[in-house]
Design goal:
By secondary structure, the chain is α+β, with helices and mostly antiparallel strands. Among the domains are: 33 residues; 34 residues, no CATH class; 156 residues, 2-Layer Sandwich (Muramoyl-pentapeptide Carboxypeptidase, domain 2), CATH 3.30.1380.10. Helix content is 47%, strand content 8%. A hairpin with a 5-residue loop joins strand 1 and strand 2. The structure holds zinc ion (ZN).
């Protein structure tokens, strides 16, 4: 019996060991399988958090898209800025940024009201008022013998009809419209002289001054004064602004041409005025130039033509300080 009891005990121990070993094997194999398949138990709390993140992400993406759309929309009316800046700014900010001379296309031809058009803040060494074109109602800016733009100012330009001549990009389309309209009437308004750089104006002016000194035996000052009635000193010419075109040629006989007659009749319909006449020479300080046509916009060109005043007088008459 002792032996038999011993045998039963041994069998029981073996049995228990077997069961334990089987259990251990099963547990280990399950664990190994989970690791292999990458299955990670997800608690309901984690699941909820993950969904929330996704929703937030989606909302942010939508916001970004909306911002981008806003940026694109406002780009057409606001000053060109870098894409990044536009995308980051809010609708309110972008719609209010309107900067002269950096604007792609004017939203309207002209503003309906005229405000203070320049800031008389600086006077140059030559005693002239320095006009800041970026703080000025661009189409009504006045430069003349007593008003100049700063050296180094270059407007945004656009070529006219592939001619190699340039005007302010906001004026160029109007000149082209006028050119094609005249063409239909058998008139060719050839661009002769359009935008001139400050440097070129300076050279032209100095050359004429030198010529007068030798031709008439004048002092430099006297020759410079005389030259200024024909070629404006650098920075004081509308050509430096890209707002004026000398049409066809610069001969006095242009006043008797059919091109001049056409311009007299139609130029205001395209926003251009005759700037320098004999009658207004005491005010403008410039000899008559039948070839020189200045852009002021259709609305003002008509008003100025009807008034019979020159630009300076007209602005005075409507109470605009320039
Ligand atoms: Zn001119």
């Amino acid at each position: 019996m002792k032996n038999s009891n011993k045998g039963v005990k041994t069998a029981l121990v073996v049995c228990v060991l077997c069961i334990v070993s089987i259990l251990v094997t099963v547990i280990m194999s399950v664990a190994a399988g989970n690791r292999k398949s990458g299955i990670v138990p997800i608690s309901p709390a984690t699941l909820a958090q993950s969904t929330e993140e996704k929703t937030q992400e989606a909302a942010e993406t939508t916001k970004k898209k909306q911002k981008k759309t806003t940026g694109q929309k406002t780009e057409t009316t606001a000053a060109p800025t870098t894409e990044a800046t536009t995308a980051e700014t809010t609708t309110e900010e972008t719609t209010t940024v309107l900067v002269p001379y950096t604007q792609d296309e004017p939203t309207t031809d002209l503003p309906t009201t005229v405000k203070e058009i320049t800031e008389k803040t600086t006077v140059s060494s030559s005693g002239r008022i320095i006009v800041d074109p970026t703080k000025t109602q661009w189409n009504l800016i006045v430069v003349n013998s007593s008003r100049e733009i700063p050296e180094g100012y270059v407007p945004q330009l656009k070529e006219i009809l592939g001619s190699g001549k340039y005007l302010d990009y906001r004026v160029a389309p109007h000149y082209e419209d006028m050119y094609y309209a005249a063409k239909k009437d058998g008139i060719t308004l050839t661009p002769y002289s359009a935008y001139r750089t400050y440097e070129r104006q300076k050279n032209n002016y100095n050359n004429l001054t030198n010529k007068y000194m030798s031709q008439y035996g004048l002092s430099r000052d006297a020759a410079a004064k005389k030259a200024a009635t024909v070629i404006l000193p650098p920075g004081t010419s509308e050509h430096n602004l890209g707002l004026a075109m000398d049409v066809c040629n610069v001969y006095d006989s242009f006043a008797y041409s059919k091109e001049y007659a056409w311009l007299q009749q139609h130029a205001h319909e395209y926003g251009f005025i005759l700037r320098y006449t004999k009658e207004k020479q005491p005010i403008t300080g410039i000899v008559p130039e039948p070839w020189h046509w200045r852009y002021v916009g259709v609305e003002y060109a008509k008003k100025i033509k009807d008034s019979g005043l020159c630009l300076e007088e007209y602005l005075d008459s409507i109470g605009v300080s320039y």
